[in-house]
Amino acid sequence: MDDYEVVASDGRGVVEEQGPLRVVISFDRPFGRSRVRQRLILRAGSARLDFDIDIDWQERDRVLKVSFPLAIHTDHSVAEIQYGHVRRPTHRNTSWDAARFEVPIHRWIDLSEADYGAALLNNGIFGCDVLGNRLRLTLLKSASAPDPVADVGIHRRTFSLFPHPGATLDGRVNDEALALNSPLIVRDGAPDGPSEASWLSVDQPAVTLEAFKRSEDGKHLVMRWLEAGGRRANASIHTTLPGVSFGEAELLENACPADRNEGLREFEPFEVRTFRTP
Fold first, then answer.
1. Least C-beta-crowded within 10 Å: which of 109, 167, 260, 265?
2. 3-class SS of residue 236
3. Could you tell me whether strands 64-69 and 272-276 are parallel, antiparallel, or unpaired per DSSP bridges?
């Protein structure tokens, strides 16, 4: 059994915000010489439970984790890696399994049955461990070496619990992780032109835009798309930029001799494709 202490569970909850769009409840939890302020956020129309945590950490040689025991029965987890995802066992039956007491993830890790699951989404927290139906994110390590004051100070962590119907790929886990990491920014003002418009759009939810930028030589616009679901996809990509067209390019942003398909883009599983202006 893990040797751990629980950060004070008797912290009193305070309703900070209660409106038609969201509800925010905060908890102030002391631990040793440290203090953890946890805000739970529920948004209207969203299945996510968001956590926004401020940590004043003054401990040494202690690891701070957040734990979610889930009512999910499965023998493997699915975690995002760069431009893909990987399956790992949730048990420690072998020495190889036991050595993976902590594993790296990118924006999400998911436990799913055939028709239901729950994902733990994160924003810049890359250490995780899984055992049975328990998911844990590592928030702070505070090791003594090589830096004797590592992690001492003020920190902010953001993550989310996302229950969903369907298995991992059908539950829009990747979409919610993108939304957590790149939230909409609301600004005051009046729209200039059409009230609804998008420079780029695609008709396949598993095909995601990973980059939209100037080319490295500064002469072209470049967009890079990824098939993130691990399935073949025929995607139609549209742009509303006036007078702009995109042709296929290499990852180094050199134009290909001929575009494979001017209209429908055929993506292989986890394929990354680059397009640029002439």
1. 260
2. strand
3. unpaired
CB atoms within 10 A of CB 97: 14
In the sheet that holds 247-249, the strands lie side by side as 207-214, 221-227, 272-276, 247-249
With cut-offs at 50, 70 and 90, classify the pLDDT of residue 148. confident
User: Largest Cα–Cα distance in the chain?
Assistant: 66
pLDDT in tens, 31-85: 889 999 999 999 999 999 999 999 999 988 889 999 999 999 999 999 999 888 9
Token digits for 143?
A: 């090791």
In angstroms, the CA 49 to CA 127 distance is 20
What is the DSSP code string of 67-100? EEE-S---SEEEEEETTEEEEEESS--SHHHHH-
**Exposed/middle/buried for 171, CB within 10 Å: 0-12, 13-18, 19+?**
buried
Residue from 245, 261, 197, 249 nearest 225 by CA? 249
Looking up tokens 């928030």 gives: 139
